[in-house]
């Protein structure tokens, strides 16, 4: 048998390939394809879903954005407490263990605690039948619009990201939830808190311990600027020294009994801008409330009525006299109201602590996501 005959015989013995599939086969292929697509989609969604939250509380998930919001706030608070002002200081602090503790992990733990309180209150609010409604949405949108002002969308996004660690849309959702929590908290306190009004002696003792929080101080002052007010350039040391001499002249005149308003008129460099309101505050007069970090304010609250002195800051020189300070009789009602509000806050905080200790509100971390959140400059 030659080669041609052999090939022909082999060819006749092979089964012929089907060129056309049956309807049953086509349906089977479609079914397999559909199942494959669904499985791939399910796996993809599962992968995305398991990386979208950091922890859960009683089934309520704490999203990655929510956790990063709390972490960002905790980081900012810590950096302020530690007086970290440069990128180098911040990086060194967050990446250097101290006393066997990792500061970054400590911040994450505190952020997780804040997130848990947030989740517990949201659960309680929704259990009571409350939800984010149109009024809350409108309030938050107005607040966001006011915050954005004249910024472009990109500028606003960068600003919010830098300040809160989330996008404006994520922040909107968080603020809406917080407004819901506030509403729930107000209602809970109103319904459950039993007031025990403080007595007059308690109010007076509280005022004595916290005078600066309630008092106001009236000042008269002369001001000299240590910079050129037209171009905002610093003056030379010689020019500043001349102003110090003028400040000492004004101080001596006040001490010698010269009329304070006359001294202000003769010496102060303060002027009323044409852009000021129709009834601007008189030149050289201030009513101060206390806050730390301002040299003039701290001097005013540390001294007594009638005291006069020179207070120099980085940018100005003041010659100031204390004209008046409120006392207990002036602010007793404010003190009482503050004590009552503080008592309400303590009541609610205690209740929140009790809720948080309930086993059903134990926080369950999503370790894969939680551990992946590392310090970034």
Quaternary class: single chain
Estimate the global geometry from the Cα principal axes: elongated
Low-confidence stretches: 40-48
Main sheet attributes: strand count, strand direction, barrel closure = 4 strands, antiparallel
- Give the mean pLDDT: 88
Structural class: alpha+beta
* Total DSSP helices: 15
Descriptive overview:
By secondary structure, the protein is of the alpha+beta class. The chain contains 15 helices and 7 strands. It has helices at 3-13, 23-50, 64-81, 87-95, 103-127, 134-148, 153-164, 168-192, 200-209, 211-214, 237-255, 260-267, 295-302, 328-357, 367-372; strands at 53-57, 60-63, 216-225, 285-289, 308-312, 316-325, 363-365. The strands form 2 sheets. It has a 4-stranded antiparallel beta sheet, with helices on both faces. A 3-stranded antiparallel beta sheet has the order 2-1-7. A hairpin with a 3-residue loop joins strand 5 and strand 6. It is elongated and about 110 Å long. Residues 40-48 have low confidence and may be disordered.
């Amino acid at each position: 048998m030659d080669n041609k005959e052999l090939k022909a015989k082999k060819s006749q013995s092979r089964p012929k390939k089907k060129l056309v599939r049956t309807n049953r086969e086509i349906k089977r292929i479609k079914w397999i394809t559909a199942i494959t697509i669904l499985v791939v989609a399910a796996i993809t969604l599962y992968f995305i879903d398991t990386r979208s939250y950091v922890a859960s509380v009683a089934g309520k998930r704490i999203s990655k954005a929510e956790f990063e919001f709390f972490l960002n706030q905790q980081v900012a608070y810590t950096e302020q407490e530690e007086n970290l002002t440069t990128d180098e200081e911040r990086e060194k602090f967050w990446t250097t263990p101290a006393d066997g503790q990792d500061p970054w992990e400590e911040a994450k733990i505190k952020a997780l605690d804040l997130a848990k309180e947030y989740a517990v209150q949201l659960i309680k609010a929704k259990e009571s039948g409350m939800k984010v409604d149109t009024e809350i949405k409108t309030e938050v949108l107005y607040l966001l619009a006011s915050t954005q002002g004249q910024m472009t969308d990109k500028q606003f996004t960068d600003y919010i990201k830098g300040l809160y660690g989330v996008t404006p849309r994520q922040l909107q959702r968080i603020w809406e939830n917080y407004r819901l929590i506030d509403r729930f908290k107000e209602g809970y306190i109103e319904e459950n808190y039993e007031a025990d009004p403080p007595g007059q002696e308690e109010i007076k003792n509280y005022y004595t311990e916290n005078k600066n929080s309630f008092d106001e101080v009236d000042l008269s002052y002369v001001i000299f600027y240590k910079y050129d007010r037209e171009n905002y350039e610093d003056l030379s040391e010689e020019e500043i020294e001349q102003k110090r001499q003028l400040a000492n002249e004004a101080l001596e005149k006040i001490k010698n009994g010269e009329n304070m308003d006359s001294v202000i008129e003769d010496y102060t460099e303060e002027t009323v801008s044409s852009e000021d309101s129709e009834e601007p505050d008189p030149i050289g007069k201030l009513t101060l409330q206390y806050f730390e970090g301002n040299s003039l304010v701290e001097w005013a609250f540390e001294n007594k009525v009638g005291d006069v002195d020179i207070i120099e800051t980085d940018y100005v020189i003041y010659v100031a006299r204390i004209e008046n300070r409120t006392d207990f009789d002036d602010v007793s009602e404010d003190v009482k109201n503050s004590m009552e509000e503080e008592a309400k806050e303590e009541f609610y905080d205690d209740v929140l602590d009790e809720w948080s200790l309930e086993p059903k509100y134990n926080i369950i971390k999503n370790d894969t996501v939680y551990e992946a959140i590392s310090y970034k400059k």
